Each structure stands twice: as C-alpha cells, then as structure tokens.
Amino acid sequence: MTKTQEYNQTNAEVSEYTHEQLQRLKQLGTATVYEAQGQRGSIASEIRPLDPAMKLVGTALTVNTTPGDNLMFHQAVLMARPGDVLVVDAKGFTDAGPWGDVLTLAAQQAGIAGLVIDGSVRDSEAIIEAGFPVFSRGISIRGTTKVDPGEVGGTINLAGTLVERGDIIIGDRDGLVVVKAADVLDSLEKAEAREAKEEEFRRRILDEGASTAELLGLLPTLQRYGW
C-alpha cells in the first residue's frame, strides 16, 4: 500500500462541514471567531495575504516540508479534495519560493480553496490576478529543489500553532485563525453571539451616545485609577 492509499484510508472519516457554515465563518471574520473561541487559534501575524482583499475558508490539508524544497506541494495537490486549504510548515524559510503560478493553476483545477505557508511564494502578481487566496510569510523569486521527503496529512506546528488535518482555516486581512475540527459548531454559535452583541454596541453608540467604557463595564475600573 502506498502512502497516499494509507492516507486516504485513515482519513476517510474526516469531518465535513456544510458550505453555508464555512461561508458564515468567513463572513464573521477572523477577529470575531478568535475572540469567540476565548482568544485561541490565531496564527502568527507575520503570515499575511498577498493581497489584503484576499479571504479564505476551508478544511486544512497539512503539509510538512523541508525548507527550500517543494516536492510535497505537488503530492498535496494530488491528494487534496475540493474545499481543502493547503497549510504548509516550511519552517519560516523565506529565501526561496516553493509555490508559484503553475502550482496555483493546478490547485484551482483541483478545487483547492487556498494556501497558507510559513514560508515564501513567488509569481505573486499572477497569483493575485488568478484570484487564488495565498497567505505567506514572504515573497522570493528563488527556486527550490524537488527531492526531499516530507509528510502530508499529519499534525504540524505552524509558527507556534498546532494544525491538524480537518481543522477549519479562516483568513482575511486581519490574519488567520484555526478552528479545531471538534469545535466548529460551537465556535460558529459563539461567534454569531459575539457578532450580535457587538451589533447592539454599535446601535447604542449611534442611538444613545453610549461610550465604549460604559458598554464594556469599564467605568468602575477607570474610577478606581482616578479617572
């Protein structure tokens, strides 16, 4: 049995989420989801969208790769399912671009929803024009090798945040957040509640002239410090 066959067999029960649930998480935004989770799940702020207008949501397909090599990227594209986001631990190496416009095209043809990489990419203008969401630590024109083994589908440490196959990844101009597979429905419910609470704050600020200090119950603390 090949590694790909083993992967498909052991991951046959990866949880699926409805398109509507995923799109609602994206609509709520990373900051709201992060806060609703108790300030958990944020991914290093150095990993940014190539274009601030880029947004993504999807199921993580994790990739562990050697810095300066992109063999596992090609394997991941072969294994990905529609709606997957490739989440790549490239060890923060930014002096080479293992992902470019050709891989972007192949990923789009496979239905891949985006790429998150703790490393660099190249052909950034072409990627933006293609409308493919990419979040990376950097950009580099330097090429890579295609020889080193790695892993697809295992748990990775992405710049300090653990990501597993099947987790939900959300990205926008504020950053990236991971929602653990077992917590998707709970996180969505809490994020909806937080959004409703903040909408009420906005209404009271506009209609009643309420202050943020009042709304957040900060007046006693401020008074205690002499304000």
Please write out the topology.
Elements (H helix, E strand, L loop, with lengths): L2 H8 L8 H10 L1 H7 L5 E2 L4 E2 L6 E9 L6 H9 L4 E10 L7 H9 L4 E8 L2 H7 L3 E6 L11 E2 L3 E3 L2 E3 L4 E5 L2 E5 L4 H25 L3 H4 L3 H6 L3
Parallel strand pairs: 3-4, 4-5, 5-6
Antiparallel strand pairs: 1-11, 2-6, 3-7, 3-10, 8-9, 10-11
Helix pairs in contact: 2-7, 3-7
Would you identify the CATH H-level superfamily of the largest domain?
Answer: Ribonuclease E inhibitor RraA/RraA-like
Q: At CATH's second level, what is the architecture of the largest domain? A: 3-Layer(bba) Sandwich
Which class of the largest domain in CATH terms? Answer: Alpha Beta
Number of H/I helices: 9
Quote the CATH topology of the largest domain: Glucose Oxidase, domain 1
Mind telling me the C-alpha Rg? 20 Å
Q: Please, what is the average pLDDT? A: 94
In helices, the fraction of residues equals 25-40%
Task: Describe the overall structure.
The chain has 227 residues and is of the alpha/beta class. The protein folds into two domains: 3-181, Ribonuclease E inhibitor RraA/RraA-like (Glucose Oxidase, domain 1, 3-Layer(bba) Sandwich); 190-224, no CATH class. Helix content is 37%, strand content 24%. The chain has helices at residues 3-10, 19-28, 30-36, 71-79, 101-109, 124-130, 184-208, 212-215, 219-224; strands at 42-43, 48-49, 56-64, 84-93, 114-121, 134-139, 151-152, 156-158, 161-163, 168-172, 175-179. Strands 1, 2, 3, 4, 5, 6, 7, 10 and 11 form a nine-stranded mixed beta sheet that branches. α5 links the parallel β4 (84-93) and β5 (114-121). α2 (19-28) packs across α7 (184-208) and α3 (30-36) crosses α7. The radius of gyration is 20 Å and the shape is elongated. The termini are far apart.
